[in-house]
Amino acid sequence: MRRFIFFWFVAGVTTSTDLDQWAQFKSKHGRVYTITQEDRKRFSIFKDNLQKIEHHNAKYEKGEVSYALKITKFADMTWDEFKDFLRNSFGDLIEDNSEKSYESRLEERNEETIVDLPTAVDWNQKGAVTKVKDQGTCGSCWAFSAVGALEAQHLQTNGSLLDLSAQELVDCADATYGNMGCAGGLMDNAFNFVKVKGILTEKEYPYKGISDYCRQKQEGFKIQSYVDVANQDEKVLAKAVAQVGPVSCAMDASYIQLYSHGIIDRSCGCDNARYSLNHGVLVVGYGEENGVQFWLVKNSWGTGWGEDGYFKLRKNDKNSCGIATLSSYPVA
Predict the structure, then answer these.
(1) How far out from the chain centre does Cα 46 lie?
(2) Which of 48, 251, 260, 288 is most enclosed, with most CB atoms within 10 A?
């Protein structure tokens, strides 16, 4: 016991508050490190992230940055480890799928239809968005992104909001459709699967968080087609969100590991190039806060991350984090 206490305090920078927060973090997120050396390593990373949060939030309080940070379930990861967790490389997937011929159409800019858009939209308020899910350690963000857009279309077509099965997409919309299960996928490929095979509800095909064999025994909800939003055009994306419903989007999520609240912008360091896209999300609306326009985005990292599982991303800011680089929606 003496040796353990000596280790923590010999460094001279560890406080009882740090230790308390570390214990609370491990308890909350089920972290159990059976090897002392690994616990020490993770605690060191955790402390580094605490310092990062404190430094960033001091700037937030001064109005120097537009968003705040907090301890999230990723707080014991280095930045490189978090990027590895994101896993999905949309640029590589697009290249791998370049020879596939799927029937989709492109929504391009029409200035006449764009000028009359509402100043704010939130599909939550219209009852078209299900609760926030948690993808766990599976790289299934693409499936949850697609499912969110499909759920809204199911509501508009059948009059009921149902949780649809992300697990079915992980298991069944497989390599045949250009996806890799928990190793990543494309929302367009998911839409193509649902067009052909349909999709069951979460209750019928519950989420496991692993890639498994396909257990689809019946067809579910089908769509007629899907639409790709014009590349990097935020005005066309806004039109789709306002007039159609929630839109599936890819983004560079490399810098939102510890996001708490506020409006993320390009100052975080994110990129808008297609090769930098590494996470699938769902844009459910847009609005303005303190004179700054933002996208309202639903994530799939549980309600403990961000603002109850959501985040705001600056809108009309040169395509922040690539939110309008690869976006699409289904048509029921």
Answers:
(1) 22
(2) 251
pLDDT tens-digit profile of 175-199? 999 999 999 999 999 999 999 999 9
Take residue 234 and report the two structure tokens written for it.
């935020």
> How would you label 162-185 residue by residue, b for 16+ Cβ within 10 Å and e otherwise?
bbbbbbbbbbbbbeebbbbbbebb
Residue with tokens 């009852």: 127
Joined tokens for residue 184: 């990543």
What DSSP line would sit under 239-251, residue for residue?
HHHHHT--EEEEE
Q: What is the pLDDT of residues 85-123, one digit of tens each?
A: 997 777 667 666 554 545 556 665 555 556 689 999 999
Note the pTM of the prediction, 2 decimals: 0.91
Same structural domain for residues 244 and 168?
Answer: yes
161 in a domain, yes or no? yes
Considering its fold, how many domains does the chain have in total? Answer: 2
Return the closest-CA partner of residue 89 out of 243, 228, 273: 273
Residue 89's SS3 state is coil
Do 149 and 287 belong to one domain? yes
Query: Higher pLDDT residue, 107 or 50?
Result: 50
Residue 234 CB contacts under 8 Å (≥ 6 apart), including other chains? 315, 316, 319, 323, 324
Task: Report residue 130 CA to chain centroid gap.
Answer: 15
How far the first Cα of the chain sits from its last, in Å, is: 63
CB 287 within 8 A of CB 215: no
- State whether residue 68 is helix, strand or coil: strand
Indicate the DSSP class of residue 169: H
Amino acid at 137: T
Residues 17 and 128 in one domain: no
Tell me which residues are annotated as active site. Answer: 141, 279, 299
The residue from 13, 31, 65 where one domain ends is: 65
Amino acid identity, position 98: S
